[in-house]
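This part of the workshop introduces the protein records we will be handling. An example says more than a description, so a record of this kind follows:
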Amino acid sequence: MTTRRTRPAPRPPEGTPPRAELARQARAVLADAVRIAHWAAGTPGPGTAAPLAAHALERAATALELSPAQVRAGWDRARLAGLVELHGDTARPGWRLRAWDRDDSAVLRGWVALFDAWSLVHAAPEGIEAGAVAEAVEAVPQVLSLLQLSAGPVTVPALLDLLGQRVAELQEERCEVPLGPGRTAPAASASPAETAADQTAASAGPARSADLNALLLDWALEGLAAVGALTLGKGHATLTPLGNWAVWVKLEQICVAAQSPAGNIEQSAADMLLGCARLTPGPARDEYRAWLAARTVGSAVAELLAVARGEDALLRGLAFEALRVVGGPAEPEVRAVLAEPSLRPYALLWLAEYEGNDPDDAQDVLSREEATWLWVDTAAAVADHGETGLLVRHLDSAVQGTVPALLDEVRAVGHPRTVQVLVALAAAHPDPALAKAVRRAAFQVHTGGA
């Protein structure tokens, strides 16, 4: 046996308010969003979906005594913070809204989801190409790190200098040569006069780039201020206690990633999940957190779902275990795969647990057919990676209650691995009569018989 030294629980920076106070501040930031979410969730019929219909906007403004602009902004925040869920044209309360007054952790998670979406809350200036905006968004974490480490006001020129350096690094990493707006590299066949003209025009590029960076920095600071992450003074910016805490949490995640206990941080999602397959739940979650912290949420969720769509049923289940560690930011993508039969049972269970249902009761959200499909998929994972005794014991988890009923429904569910699962179960089961019935069922599925 080996022992693994555990990293002590990190302590927030000196002066960080307690979680209850941070949650109070988060509730204050999202007060209008919560009011609008309650109003939308209690309004029957269509008209509360995004974009907010004109008549619903007017009704909400009148009922809540807010301006239409305030209603629209609060509605966007409610959606981004997970306070409301959209089902067609109907808004329903999200689990965070139901837990808002009693669960500080739910409040802080909701605010962090809004903080992560700051670039959606505050629209980018018009006329700037998407690539420049994306570079600025990617550079903002370094700006926030400087603000957090400074533990006080930082001048805008210092932040602008850091933003410019980070953007230049990103362009260099992509092997891009900065050109003036609307410029392209000179053609190989360009004449000396054309080349000289290009060089003259390019000489004005850095000035324009500095102006562009200044414009993007102003946009980013205003967006972060809009979600309550910082305050703006005359020529300087300062993180709020909420913003300081959020940046510290994210820096801690990076530290966890750097200390990935089993060394899977640089692996692909599939290799990481295979590396975690024989870990107990606690260490496996540590690995998931380390792997996730080293990636953007969007790319990590997309990679995990791509693995889940593959043929390996074990990886499918483990991918959704890793998505449980992601939590709220994965909800839209998980909800989007409900239409995919192979992922639907996993997604339904994930959403049920995410919305606060007891894991032991989460199976109730599955239809009989979905539960049967999941039983076959889990059996396939056991047949591929587990022990024969475990496959036999897996019979007890079937919802049907009897083997004949299970076989009837397994034949009808249409899982692509049905034949292999039944053959493996027949080979593993010690009861000759039952094994014979299972083999017969496998033959009938294989030949298309009844």
About this structure: The longest strand covers residues 84-87. The two ends are 52 Å apart (CA to CA). Confidence is low (pLDDT under 50) at residues 1-8, 45-51, 177-208. Residues 327 and 354 are 7 Å apart (CA to CA).
